[in-house]
C-alpha cells in the first residue's frame, strides 16, 4: 500500500461510486483550500473531483458533520457511519484524511 501526501487540497464531500464502489473525494485545491482563506474568496472556487480511492480514513468525528465547517466531508459520509460518531466528544482542531488505492 502506498501513501501519497498532497498538500493544498481540502475535501468537502465524499461519495461512494456505484459499480466499482470506490470512494470519490470532491473538494478544492490551491488558496481556496487553506483554513485562513476568507469564506468570500473560498466560495468562488467550484468543488471538483480530487480522485477515487479504495478506502478513506477519517480521523476526526467533526468531519462527519455535514455543514459544520467548510472542511467537513460529512455530506458524503454514510449515515450508518456518521451516526456512530456524532455523539462522541470532538476534541481535535486539526485532522487528517487518508484515502487508499489498492
Global geometry: globular
Number of distinct helices: 2
The proportion of residues in beta strands is: 25-35%
Q: Mind describing the biggest β-sheet?
A: 3 strands, antiparallel
Mean pLDDT: 78
How many DSSP E strands? 5
N-end to C-end Cα span? 7 Å
Return Rg in Å. Answer: 13 Å
Computed structural class = mainly beta
Strand order of the largest sheet: 1-2-3
Order of helices and strands: EEHEEHE
Task: Give the proportion of residues in helices.
Answer: 10-25%
- Would you identify the regions where 5 or more consecutive residues have pLDDT less than 50? none
Structural write-up:
- This protein is mainly beta and 102 residues long.
- The chain contains 2 helices and 5 strands.
- The strands form 2 sheets. A 3-stranded antiparallel beta sheet has the order 1-2-3, with no helix packed on it.
- The longest helix is centred in the C-terminal third of the chain and has 7 residues, at 79-85.
- The chain is globular and about 35 Å long.
- The protein starts with 8 loop residues before the first strand and ends with a strand.
